[in-house]
Design brief:
heterodimer; A: about 725 residues; mainly alpha; two-stranded antiparallel ribbon; 27 helices; about 65% helix; B: about 55 residues
């Protein structure tokens, strides 16, 4: 050993930034879960939609999912990474300024989301609802986080990169690529855009993104946290370091391919469905390897688990990870997916992951970390134990009723009489059957929030009795590099030069830009054609954008699977060629209400008018909220021309110069709808200029393009 | 369905990136020692609370 090893360098860990992220995690966790509780109660008591556009289920559901995923878990990731990265690498974060930009930038994005989503500004893609200006802001802040993280890695004092850091790196790289690709879109205006892809292709990109968002935002960073905080809390080395390395590489290699399991039995080509299914099944191996590695870390320390609420929470977290990663592959098997898809089983499944895995691990980490930041002990272990029991039973109260509800409803949808008719031909019957389950689920959610409040109180008391150590001064020897390689390894050169790394990153981003152009070039020949499928008329297009604004896709699918129980209920199964002008696709993933793909022509215009005014007029007992503002709001037609132009750019064959004539066609069709409404006794000042007319036009168009040949066939 | 070719290419590129990272990790000796890292991370650094001037 030379003198290098004995020279100690003095430096300070940045604890203040970790504290900021911890506070943000608790705050947004509370807000996100509270919105979740509200929308859970709305399903039982529709009056809780409050008759306002901004507080309806369709608009609040994306707010809940975004708040919990990107605000609660997102801040939890930053909290854990900023704490553990510094200590694992024995250095302060690369730049305090970047840390602050990361923190305030991320919080501003959350606030922007909390404002825009209730206003109905949404792309409608699940977990990517935010519109393009916010998407750009997310990309920028994420790059700042990346520079800060890689900068820290480059100036590290510890040569070895602990397994947790590998998980952080994979998270950053993959989320960057996913985010850029998913959000390729052409803006129509400041707060509206159309995605680059249509129909089945948009669906595939969406679930390639959606599944990997679960994988690389909710899973890999939290696995990194598990590999750091679980051994720390137990004061034991991880069960097998070798297994952790295998876990990491196997997981990230397989995860990327599993997306199509969200599209089983849809219009996606069969081979792509099977590919997704096979990779999803393979995922169980690395996932369970990781789970067992976490649990077995506690071998010989189970006596500590008995008394320590932190370890208890981590055990439940890792167990929930094991459960949801067992359930996921099972739900990717087509036979089982036929039952679970579109039901509350999916909702139960994701909450085992979100409440159990992400929630409990976050709580465990916070109980461990906050006292250390404030150089004190946890205020009350007893209260933390109470939190543990409340939260654990809350998860059961949440998930079991939803599994029950999902199976019940799915079997009711599929039940036939001996004569071959649907037993529950009225969809509403299957909804009312499960409302008591929804109530118990809401109770479970309320309990979970109660637990969170116990933690907040406990931590406030802890903070009050300690004093923050904003800069934790420590000493460590300078980095000793491996002498293993023969000569200078090319990578070492990059490692030592953050600027080189930046150039590399720019090149990568440029490749992303290239990839943006590539699909444009090939998009024309991408479209499988059915002769009778035509682009939407301007009025239908505006109606469709209202459908998107109100978040109808949150409760209504537009994808009839090829099962007799579905074709009997909804009509002919959906074909991929029917969706070529759907930008974005609106297949949905949950049927709280019935599928709408063939709703066109099923009811008269006046039925839709009354139904949107107040659903219980037409369907007594319905839990759908009323949409009276559609009847009073004037339709904004100023955007029509811009929308047509963007769609033309994306390949929709509107005639040249149609953008300028579109509003004439729009008004002509609106007058016709208004005339039919008036004939049915509905009148109102300027009816033909209201939003409701556009929505009705869209709904009446749905699925009708290929109905004509069917009628002709029947006539023969 | 050309989009799937695009997605496969992107996914392959990601996988390739991971492969390069893996090979680098192995060749640079990151995994030569699969025993002590798990133990070393448990040790807290000795704190030097008093001095703030670095």
């Amino acid at each position: 050993m030379d003198s290098q090893t004995t020279q100690l360098e003095r430096f300070a860990y940045d604890n203040a930034i970790v504290r900021n992220f911890a506070y943000a995690t608790a705050l947004w966790g509370f807000v996100g879960m509270l919105v979740g509780l509200l929308i859970a109660l709305q399903l039982v008591f529709p009056a809780l939609n409050f008759g306002m556009a901004e507080t309806t289920f369709g608009r609040l559901r994306p707010l809940h999912t975004n708040a919990v995923i990107f605000a609660f878990v997102g801040n939890g990731i930053f909290m854990g990474v900023y704490y553990s990265l510094q200590r694992l690498l024995k250095t302060r974060m690369y730049s305090d300024v970047l840390s602050k930009i990361n923190f305030w930038g991320w919080q501003s994005i959350i606030v922007a989301a909390a404002i825009t989503l209730p206003l109905g500004i949404t792309s409608s893609h699940e977990y990517a609802e935010l519109e393009w200006p916010i998407d750009i802001a997310i990309a920028l802040v994420w790059v700042v986080f990346g520079i800060n993280m890689f900068g820290t890695i480059f100036k590290r004092r510890e040569e070895h990169l602990y397994v947790a850091i590998w998980f952080y790196i994979a998270t950053w790289v993959t989320v960057t690529i996913l985010h850029v690709f998913k959000n390729l879109a052409i803006p129509v205006s400041m707060w509206e855009s159309y995605p680059a892809f249509a129909g089945v292709q948009d669906a595939l990109v969406q679930w390639w993104y959606g599944h990997n968002a679960v994988a690389f935002f909710l899973t890999t960073p939290y696995l990194g946290l598990m590999y750091y905080f679980l051994p720390k809390a137990a004061n034991r080395p991880v069960f097998s370091y070798r297994l952790s390395i295998i876990h990491f590489w196997a997981l990230i290699f397989i995860y990327i391919w599993a997306g199509p399991h969200h599209l089983l039995y849809t219009s996606l080509p069969d081979w792509a469905q099977s590919l997704g299914m096979v990779f999803s099944l393979m995922l169980i191996a690395p996932s369970w390897g990781g789970m067992l590695n976490g649990l077995l870390t506690l071998r010989g320390a189970w006596d500590k688990v008995r008394t320590d609420p932190i370890l208890k929470m981590m055990v439940v977290a890792v167990t929930a990870y094991g459960m949801s990663t067992f359930e996921g592959p099972m739900m990717s098997i087509k036979a089982y997916n036929a039952i679970t898809h579109y039901t509350d089983i999916t909702v139960g499944h994701v909450h085992i992951g979100a409440l159990g895995w992400n929630g409990m691990l976050t709580f465990g980490v916070m109980y461990w970390l906050v006292p250390r930041l404030f150089n004190t002990k946890l205020y009350s272990v007893k209260l933390a134990n109470a939190h543990f029991w409340l939260a654990t039973s809350a998860i059961l109260f949440y998930a079991i009723p939803l599994y029950w509800a999902g199976f019940t409803q799915s079997l009711m949808w599929k039940e036939f009489t001996p004569d071959g008719f649907l037993v529950y031909g009225n969809f509403l019957e299957t909804v009312q059957q499960i409302i008591p389950m929804y109530l118990i689920r809401a109770l479970g959610g309320a309990m979970f929030i109660g637990g969170l409040l116990l933690m907040v109180y406990n931590l406030i008391k802890t903070v009050a009795q300690g004093t923050l150590v904003p800069d934790e001064w420590v000493e460590a020897p300078a980095r000793v590099k491996h002498l293993a390689g023969k000569g200078e390894h090319w990578h070492r050169w990059i490692e030592n030069k953050p600027v080189t790394m930046l150039v590399g990153a720019t090149i990568v981003i440029m490749i992303g830009g290239l990839a943006e152009i590539l699909p444009m070039a090939i998009i024309d020949e991408n479209i499988p054609k059915i002769a009778s499928v035509q682009p939407y008329t301007p009025l239908e297009l505006q109606g469709r954008d209202l459908y998107i604004r109100e978040g109808c896709v949150g409760c209504h699918s537009q994808m009839i699977r090829p099962f007799r129980s579905e074709t009997e209920r909804y009509g002919a199964y959906s074909k991929s060629g029917e969706f070529i002008y759907d930008q974005p696709f609106l297949w949905g993933s949950k049927r709280t209400g019935p599928d709408l793909h063939r709703v066109g022509g099923k009811y008269p215009d006046s039925w839709h008018y009354n139904h949107m005014l107040d659903p219980v007029i037409m369907s007594p007992g319905s839990i759908m909220p009323p949409y009276p503002w559609l009847i009073t709001n004037d339709l904004d037609t100023t955007s029509t021309a811009a929308k047509i132009r963007v769609l033309q750019k994306l390949g929709t064959p509107y005639p040249e110069g149609y953008d300028l004539e579109a509003n004439e066609d729009l008004q002509r069709q609106a007058d016709e709808v208004a005339k039919r409404l008036r004939a049915d006794g509905i009148d109102g000042e300027g009816l033909e200029r209201k939003e409701i007319v556009a929505l009705i036009a869209y709904l009446q168009r749905l699925g009708t393009d290929i109905k004509v040949p069917e009628k002709q066939r029947a006539a023969k | 369905m050309k989009i799937i070719l695009l997605l496969i290419v992107i996914s392959l590129l990601v996988a390739l990136g991971f492969l390069v990272a893996f090979l680098w990790a192995v060749r640079s000796g990151q995994y030569d020692d699969s025993c002590t890292p798990a133990i070393r991370m448990l040790f807290e650094d000795p704190q030097k609370q008093t001095k703030n001037n670095g």
